[in-house]
Amino acid sequence: MSDPRARAILAIAILSALAGRASAVHVGEKAPAFSLSVAGESRRLSVPDPAAGQALTVVMFISTRCPVSNAYDVRMEDLEKAYGSRRVRFIGVNSNVNEPPAEIAAHAREHGFTFPVVKDEGSRTADAYGAQHTPEIFVIDAAGLLRYHGRIDENRDDAAAVRSPDLRNALDALLAGRPAPVASTKAFGCSIKRG
Amino acid sequence: MIGAILLALAVSAKAPARAPRVIAPVAPSDYLSAVVRPHRGRVLVVNFWATWCEPCRAELPSLAKAWKKWRGAFDVVLVSADALRLKDGVVPAVLEGLDSPFPCFIEASDDPQKFIDTVDPTWEGELPHTVVYDRDGKVAASAAGLQSEAQFEALVARAR
What we know:
The complex is a heterodimer of chains A (195) and B (160). Chain A has 195 residues and is an alpha/beta fold. Helices cover 29% and strands 21% of the residues of chain A. In chain A, helix 4 (101-110) links the parallel strand 4 and strand 5 (117-119). Chain A is globular and about 40 Å long. Mean pLDDT of chain A is 90; it is low at 4-22. Chain B is an alpha/beta fold and 160 residues long. Chain B has a six-stranded mixed beta sheet with strand order 1-4-3-2-6-7, sandwiched between helices. The longest helix of chain B is centred in the middle third of the chain and has 16 residues, at 54-69. Chain B is globular, with a radius of gyration of 14 Å. The termini of chain B are far apart. The model of chain B is unreliable at 1-17 (pLDDT under 50). Chains A and B meet through helix 1 and strand 9 of A and helix 5, strand 5, strand 7 and helix 6 of B.
């Protein structure tokens, strides 16, 4: 490949393919620490946060505009209601460059989220976790280790028809001191819009 | 399965100027036989998309431009990740609106993970996603996220 234009095109393709994939964290590894501002507020949240005294932290990469993420808005809130009192901390993370903090705060209010949603400027936290799409979930234990990564469940279209509630299964097992029955899952979702 | 075979026969060998907007279901177990193998001997671009995916809709015209620029020197097949119930309504309507010249399958499985892992075990499921196969039907390149016309050309160049 001696043509400089062809080389440039190839370089674009390789960089594109590698974008955001370099620093993924895997189940069993230490989850990356972060400290981000709650969208529309001045307070910051940190992970890990030993003072919070939680058994598990659920980091949820979400979006205001992605129809798949929005299909899970009610389910995410239901999960927070079901597990929030069981020492499970839920944090939404918005890493999309095209969704500003004011929009994120308004979206959270409209949907009655009781969990905070933080703004990940520059998508640096998404890069550190290797998060690729919304919604994408990472469950971290009290020791800061990643214990579950993947989807909420397999059925984005119909919450009543879910057959594989993977996140619930993982939380139930981890709270009982057992490993997640399936620690890594996948589903279709909207790609995170990086700058 | 019969629909998938008919669609594969219709789009194999030479890319048509305007393929019929038949949306054929494809199960994970049929992906290679229905989507990839009919194009052996030609470079094939498989573009995974969904009607709800904004960058997917945005990049389809770029893919069509690259395909026209290369005068159909490679084949393109779309695979929709939409719900199967949208096969005859929303999916063809969106393709019509985008003036897509490409044939389209729709993912048909009881669990999306089966399909994702069948296509590419390193793929997390984000859309859009593009996989390029060489003339032997082997993966030559893949790319996640929105691609420009030049990026599609670069991907195809890696398979030629």
